[in-house]
């Protein structure tokens, strides 16, 4: 089952650039820096300092919200225009990246938590990059996605977005248990405890849904348009 939790984490532009004919790529974060954590403001990446960018404001304006179900699988989508990207997930696992996506060296502990697209081996003109994220087990709590990008050959901008853990079941179960005590006894109906606030009472057995069904997904999809328009 592949719930349509597809998310465009950002629409980012990175022009191919060099300084003194020396390339700096997203994969250098691991291969040359040996770093196995998400980049943060103040770090140096791709030969430049990093600054924090906000996705929260744009997403909040769109009523963004959402949770994940433990153990579920989702396709994350990154809109790109000649860009290099470095993506980290704080929990769960990333796999099956699209063309050009690479994992860190096997001696680093963040295998499965991060993917980079960039360099000569990447399809830098790809319109969209994708990767499969498998949500962590129940009780893991919120998951943060960190996406790093560079505009021109300047400061690297880091975006972070958090997704909370949701219920493993999102439906109300009703069972009818007839008794055999007397012939006059009527069937007894037992209703499971009501779900918490915001929990749907309808089971979802479809393999996929339209993005609009998830407000926070719609927020990610619309974010590309906002950034392209200069908002």
Total domain modules: 1
Portion of residues within helices = 10-25%
Distance between the termini: 36 Å
Strand content: 25-35%
Count of helical stretches: 3
Shape: globular
Q: Outline the biggest β-sheet.
A: 8 strands, mixed
Q: Unreliable segments (pLDDT under 50, ≥5 consecutive)?
A: 1-23, 55-64, 168-231
Q: In terms of structural class, how would the helical and strand content be classed?
A: mainly beta
Instruction: Return Rg in Å.
Output: 22 Å
Describe, in plain words, how this protein is organized in 3D.
By secondary structure, the protein is mainly β. It has one domain. The chain is built from 3 helices and 14 strands. Strands 2, 3, 4, 6, 8, 9, 11 and 12 form an 8-stranded mixed sheet that branches. It has a 4-stranded mixed sheet with strand order 1-5-10-7. A hairpin with a 2-residue loop joins strand 2 and strand 3. The longest helix is centred in the C-terminal third of the chain and has 14 residues. The two termini are 36 Å apart.
